[in-house]
Amino acid sequence: MSDDTRQATEGETTASLRTISPNGDGQTVPAEPAAVASGGPPHVRSGRAERLTYARYLRIDELIDLQTGLTGAHDELQFIIVHQVSELWFKLLLHELKAVRGALQAHDMRTASRLLRRSCEILNNFIATIPLLETMRPADFMQIRTELGGASGFQSRQFREIEFLSGSKDERYMRTHADDAKGQTVLQAGLKEPTLWDAFVDLLVRKGYKTGSDAEIIATLVTIHREEKHPALDMLVEALLEYDLLFTQWRARHILMVERIIGSRAGTGQEDVKQIGSGYASMASGTEYLKTTLSKRFFPLIWQARTHIEK
Q1: pLDDT value of residue 270
Q2: DSSP for residue 30
Q3: C-alpha dist (Å) from residue 267 to 50, 151, 283, 296
Q4: Residue range 145-174, pLDDT digits in tens
Q5: What's the chain's Rg over C-alpha atoms?
C-alpha cells in the first residue's frame, strides 16, 4: 500500500470513528483518546474510540437494563416503563419551559409560543400513557402495590419543579424531599426563580401595558384579545392557556385512572400527603387528595379575563 493510499484510508477510518464527548458538549473525541472512567459513554470506555452507532449514542443497553422489578408480576414491566417514560417527558418539559421563560425574558414571543406548543404536545403524549396503565386490572396492580411501600408518584421531584416553574409554588411540598439533598437544592432554587407568569407579566410591562393589579392585568388581557395591535401577543396568551388547560386535563384523567384501579383506597403516598398540611391528614383515599388539585390554575387571570370579553 502506498503512503498516499494509507493516508487516505486512515483519514476515512478516523472520520468513521466520530464520537461525542463524555459530557455531551458536542466536541469530537480523538480516534485514540486517553482512557476514561468506566462511567463514560460505551464508545469511549475502553480508552479507544469506536464507531458511533444508534445504540451507543442513545446508550440503549444501559437504558433497557434499568427496568428492575420487585415482584416478578407480568404487569410490573409495563408499570415501571410507563413511569420511567413519564420522568423522561418531565425532563423534556422542564427543558422546554425553561426555554419558554428565557424567550419571554428576551422579548421573543415567536419562540415562546412555538415552544409552548411543543410543551402542549409533550403533555398530550403524557396524557396518552394513561389508557395503557388502565389495561392493568386492579388485582394485577395489587401484586405490585404490596411491594411499593411508601413509594409514590407524589414524590416526583421533576413534577414539582414543573409546577413551581409554571406558577404553582408551595413550599410545603419541600417536606416530601426532606431526606433528598439534591431535591432540596433544586426545589429551593425553583421557589426563588421567576415563573412563566412572572416572565409574561414583565413582557406586558415592556410592551407598555398596565399590570399594577389583577384588575389591570385582566383588562390588559381583554384588550390584547380584541385589538389587532399585537397578534403575536394574542397567540402567546392562547398558548399559555392551552398549556394550563392540558395540565388540568391530565390531572382529571389521572384521577379517573387511579379510581378505576384502586378505588377509594389510600394511596402509597398517603403519609407524604399528610406532611404537607393538617387539612390533608384526614383524607382517607388517594383520589380525595388528587381532587383538591383540580382547582389549580397556573394562569388564573387569563381564565378570569374570558368572563369580560365581549364582541
Answers
A1: 65
A2: P
A3: 47, 10, 10, 20
A4: 989 988 888 889 999 999 999 999 999 888
A5: 25
Q: Which residues pair with 28 in a beta bridge?
A: 20
Q: What do you get for the CA distance between the two ends of the chain, in Å?
A: 82
Choices 3.40.190.10, 1.10.1510.10, 1.20.58.480, 3.40.50.11540: CATH for 76-308: 1.20.58.480
Positions of the chain with pLDDT under 50: 8-37
> 3-state secondary structure string, 37-58?
CCCCCCCCCCCCCCCCCHHHHH
- d(C-alpha 249, C-alpha 267), whole Å: 21
Give per-residue burial for 17-44: e unless 16+ CB within 10 Å, then b.
bebbebeeeeeebeeebeeeeeebbebb
Residues in the chain: 311
The domain segmentation of the chain, as residue ranges, is 3-62, 76-308
Helix axes 196-206, 214-226, angle to 10 degrees: 70
State the CB neighbour count (10 A cutoff) for residue 189. Answer: 11
Which SS3 state, helix, strand or coil, does residue 147 take?
A: coil
Q: What is the pLDDT of residue 264?
A: 81
pLDDT of residue 37: 47
| Per-residue pLDDT reduced to its tens digit, 81-132 | 999 999 999 999 999 999 999 999 999 999 999 999 999 999 999 999 999 9
